[in-house]
């Protein structure tokens, strides 16, 4: 009988005969098996019995050196996560060797030590792992009965293992960044390292050594003094704590609230807060204290202090500075220094301010005009002197083009340029463009229309591009009506391409037409 063919029943029979006192040769003869198999089972059983006996001896009769060690203090140090080698050096290096110390602790604090020994060691306030839960929480909109799903963001401080959770309607960039801001406010501080998954809102392109991070995520991390270290692709053990925390939280949440129907994300967040408070206040199996207590006693003081102002979500756009020294952002116009005209800049839009960057240098900062449309927020230091601006190439070209359209348009643009050259530059460009379009469509016939429209704008003091365009259309329509030309569409008879109006069919002579005879 070979090892591979041995069944559990045969192994159990061999163990019974060994306990009965039979020798290996006798057992092999009775069961018709190989003696080497009986010897291997006897040796394995002897080894297990020796280990059990040694554990009993260690537990019952401690060695002499163990009596001189303060084990309550040693247990406290183990719970705090300190390496056993350092504990041995401080408490028992002069009494026994490191191996004897480890063996004794392994038998005395078996459960505590088995949970403490791990390949990863964390220091207080150093690491924080974040991730989204794979399972979603459903909620029903009472207004229309639609079923929605809430996405759960989970964070954990690796040293104290204090948990944070927040629900949002999706996993887009704004909710991803907002969840981090709420997490840091919940912890009242920020860690030095952020470990995240390779989702697109955090990592644009994953790489084992040099990943490309989302610029706004990097900006958030810099605002709170964190370094983003994404987990390796397909390596969930790099963020094993948050992976396990997601399971703990979602199992607890689904069990406690399995009979409850949520009607809003606010209710879900309220229930999540109750759940994490319950878990954080529960005694941890390994620490022998709650996560909250461990956080308050050992980790809170090690976190980085929060900045005075919380991080604001921003939107970054790339555009060129207009000749009137402004860029358009949020339906308003904000000035930039005139030396950067026609250059490509980055505009950062936040909830309270507008920042303009050229490469890495910020060249302008404005307070955001909220609730306004078409406003010009100008800083006088950004503009050149009005006389100099008036003589520059762009206003001169516009005046020349306006004079080609009509003298009255030239005089009107010259008048508004005298008041504010750069402030009326876009308006002048629009007036000239609309006049050119009319001339290209109708020739010299459109020039009187331009003069009439300009006089109308001057009369009512309303110089607007849209008003100018409407006046031109009205003049064109009036000219068409006064011409007396009948523009009614009349279909010509005999058109073979029009159904029902084709060429008339030739008359049929009944006398010569062939007759059909029914048979």
Please, could you describe this protein's structure?
- It is built from 18 helices and 15 strands.
- The chain is an alpha+beta fold and 519 residues long.
- It has 4 domains: 8-116, no CATH class; 127-302, 2-Layer Sandwich (Nucleotidyltransferase, domain 5); 315-383, no CATH class; 387-479, no CATH class.
- Strands 1, 2, 3, 4, 5 and 8 form a 6-stranded mixed beta sheet that branches.
- A hairpin with a 6-residue loop joins β6 (203-205) and β7.
- α14 (393-405) packs antiparallel against α15 and α15 runs parallel beside α17 (447-460).
Give a brief description.
By secondary structure, the protein is of the alpha+beta class.
List its salient traits:
519 residues; 4-stranded antiparallel β-sheet; 6-stranded mixed β-sheet; Nucleotidyltransferase, domain 5; single chain; alpha+beta; 4 domains; elongated; 18 helices; 15 strands
| CATH topology-level name of the largest domain | Nucleotidyltransferase, domain 5
Oligomer: single chain
Let me know the largest β-sheet.
6 strands, mixed
CATH architecture of the largest domain: 2-Layer Sandwich
State mean pLDDT (0 to 100 scale): 84
Count of discrete alpha- or pi-helical segments spanning 4 or more residues: 18
Percent of sequence in beta strands: 5-15%
How far is the N terminus from the C terminus?
Answer: 102 Å
Morphology call = elongated
Helix content: 40-55%
Question: Can you identify the CATH class of the largest domain?
Answer: Alpha Beta
- Overall tally of structural domains: 4
How many DSSP-defined strands? 15
Please state the structural category.
alpha+beta
Unreliable residue stretches: none
The CATH H-level homologous superfamily of the largest domain: Ribonuclease H-like superfamily/Ribonuclease H
Q: Please give the radius of gyration in angstroms.
A: 42 Å
